[in-house]
Amino acid sequence: MHHWKSVDLMLPDNLSAADVLAQARDQIKIIASEAGEFVQQIRIGACIAHGGGYRKWTASYLTGPPGVYPV
Q1: In sequence order, what are the residues at sequence separation of 6 or more whose Cβ sits closer than 8 angstroms to the Cβ of residue 30?
Q2: Are 68 and 39 in contact (CB under 8 A)?
C-alpha cells in the first residue's frame, strides 16, 4: 500500500518558485531513496521564515512501486 509521507525542508529564502520546486524535488528524492522508497508524487505546502536566510517548507511525497515517475 502506498501512502503520503510528510517532510520538512530548509531552503534559502531567496529562491524563485521554480527553484523551490526543483530543490524540494531533489531533496525529497534523496530522502525517499535513503528510506528505500520510490516517489510517485510530490506536494509542496506552506513555508515559514526560519531566520538566517532560510525558510522551512512543509512537503509530502506519495510512495510508489519501483519505477520512474515524472515528478
Answers
A1: none
A2: no
Q: What pLDDT shows up at residue 10?
A: 97
Given this structure, which CATH class describes domain 4-64? alpha beta
Angle at alpha carbon of residue 15, lines to 42 and 35, rounded to 5°: 35
Give the residue ranges of the chain where pLDDT is below 70: 68-71
**In which element (H, E) is residue 30 found?**
helix 17-34
Residues 67, 15: Cα–Cα separation, whole Å: 30
**Can you tell me whether residue 2 is helix, strand or coil?**
coil
Query: Is there a contact between 20 and 28 (Cβ–Cβ < 8 Å)?
Result: no
HSE-up of 52 (CA within 13 Å, CB side)?
4
Using CA atoms, how far apart are residues 32 and 5, in angstroms rounded to an integer?
9
